[in-house]
Fold each of these.
Amino acid sequence: MVKQDKIKVKNTIVEIDGDEMTRVMWKMVKDQLLLPYLDMKLEYYDLGLKKRDETDDQITKDAANAIKKHGVGVKCATITPNKARVQEYSLKQEWKSPNGTIRAILDGTLFRGPIMVKNIPPAVRNWNKPIIIGRHAYGDVYKNKEIRVPAPGKGEITFTPQEGGQSIRLTVQDFKGPGVLQGIHNTDQSISSFAKSCFTYALDQKVDLWFSTKDTISKTYDALFRQIFEEEFKKNWEEKFKNAGITYFFTLIDDAVARIIKSEGGMLWACKNYDGDVMSDMLGSAFGSLAMMTSVLVSPGGFFEYEAAHGTVQKHYYKYLKGEKTSSNPMALIFAWTGALKKRGELDNTPDVVKFAEKLEKAAIKTVESGIMTGDLLRVARPNKKNKQVYTEDFIDAIVKNLNKKL
Ligand code: NAP
Ligand code: MG
């Protein structure tokens, strides 16, 4: 296609490149499924580990700030270095997780949702719509302090006001023998940001928002979460939800689990940190494959960053480096791009961009449903003689063919 025939994406998308096999697939997706059809303004940030090391990780902060400026970003998977990676890449230091850095700058919440195809039925039969999960990623047991209680004695918690005045002190337990003690916390500010992001994304996706805690037992801690969500809803969202035909529903965590299993899906489920940790892995595996999970970081300021939920697929990359072809799955990367394009199109009021992204999603889904799939999907797909495992290149070629039929 010549430039004037391409669909014009009006405003800038922040493109964040990454590492290993996902970096390889990133380029394939761009070259074959996007650039031939779209005239895009991309602001490119290379978050490949080498570049992060060269810039002392400044590039990660720059990328996050670029999303703040332009509103929409799309990110490839990146290596979070550990000791082995420091050696492998001769790093100056064990740089922090880029996703952690970006999340801290955008103050965002991560939402995960499955890409559903007809021939990969979810483990729960009645789930015929995606369940999006939002995990509060601050505090609770993830920022705790713990004491192994060695002997009889008093276990207490204390709050000491910075400005002076009376401390608040509670006895947790009078230990008669050895035991264990834990202190956890959260902040109004963090819970409130979480609530705002959840309401923002539920409205964005036009799905009901469910929130669950254990406030019947935790009458101050969990009750504060419930209260902040309720106040935020009443103040800023009730009208908007009503107009969009969606609801906000609070229930106890155990009741939520029981209801989710019996539901047909189609909601956004906001979870406290630990609940979200556990439930997102449960949902991930129940919906089929990690490579079919998309992820979006939504900040209360209204910025969106789209990515695949999986990592850099390191094992496949080492095969690729040896010159072997791999059957790595680019679906979640493709949907990261379509997510960003749909959001850009919506913000720019350019429906043809949204339509293109939807057609690309349909073409990708149709490819899998026709039996052409990568190895990870073949293992979980409903058995069919037509099913065939293909290499990544061939999978993308098949999507191109389906896409061209739709355009
Ligand atoms: P991973 O990259 O998600 O891969 C784990 C395994 O899941 C793979 O070995 C592969 O299984 C399967 N898999 C995941 N995505 C796939 C895809 N697109 N196509 C086919 N199979 C897929 O996790 P990891 O190997 O534990 O982590 C590798 C690196 O990714 C680490 O350095 C980690 O720091 C980073 N990471 C980054 C992010 C992010 O940027 N958001 C998230 C998680 C991890 P088989 O080997 O059985 O085929
Ligand atoms: Mg987990």
Amino acid sequence: MPELNLVLLGPPGSGKGTQGERLNADLHLPYYATGDILRGAVRDQTALGKSAKEYMDRGDLVPDELIVGIIAERIDSEEARQGFILDGFPRTTPQAEALDAKLGELGREVSSVLLIDVSDDEVVRRLGGRRTCEAEGHVYHVEFNPPKVEGVCDIDGSPLIVRDDDKPDVIRKRLATYHEKTEPLVAYYDAKGVLERVDGAREPSEVTDELRGILAAVGS
Ligand code: ADP
Ligand code: ADP
């Protein structure tokens, strides 16, 4: 099996986390979600968390230099030698360039960028109803993917919470940030010939099936 260096791209709420969890279970590759890493740092009140919190609460991106080193270290680790799944990184052109530079140092490159496409209206619907498990970040939706017991994670039994940045005004700000800072990466990766676009406005299992089909072709 060739190495698989994967990037999940898409607006907030497009289903990167939902699909990433499933691909992670299929592929047994390390899964690095920068939002989860940053929320963990905020929770643990580390120096990173203290610096990142104000940006996250506003719906802005944290500065590139806070996050690039963390991802570079993960990619260079033993566990990521056969590949990795990135969710939420890169989110700016300098981050994409830093990823290419790091992979280049290691004689590697991005294998595939999976763009999960959904409209702004759908993002607002999804993030407005998102519930997140406090312990591990498992993701639910009050209407589209409810837990078996309201307010409780099916997987680890921890409470489900509304993320601070899943409030209506912050959601709108995050969408604007996506269009301004992250959407240019679609053209960036398209030009490199590694972009795969998937319609994310379908049942989660249909999206997963399409992603699996794409990865079967990339990995063969
Ligand atoms: P979502 O899953 O809704 O797209 P994330 O959990 O990925 O959101 O990210 C939450 C917040 O963490 C972002 O709004 C941003 O403030 C910060 N963040 C996550 N990844 C990055 C990154 N690569 N660069 C800068 N900020 C980031
Ligand atoms: P992201 O990581 O891109 O921010 P999530 O995976 O957290 O996105 O999904 C955002 C919200 O939308 C969650 O509440 C999730 O349960 C729900 N969701 C994810 N995929 C779908 C889908 N295909 N259809 C409807 N709701 C979905």
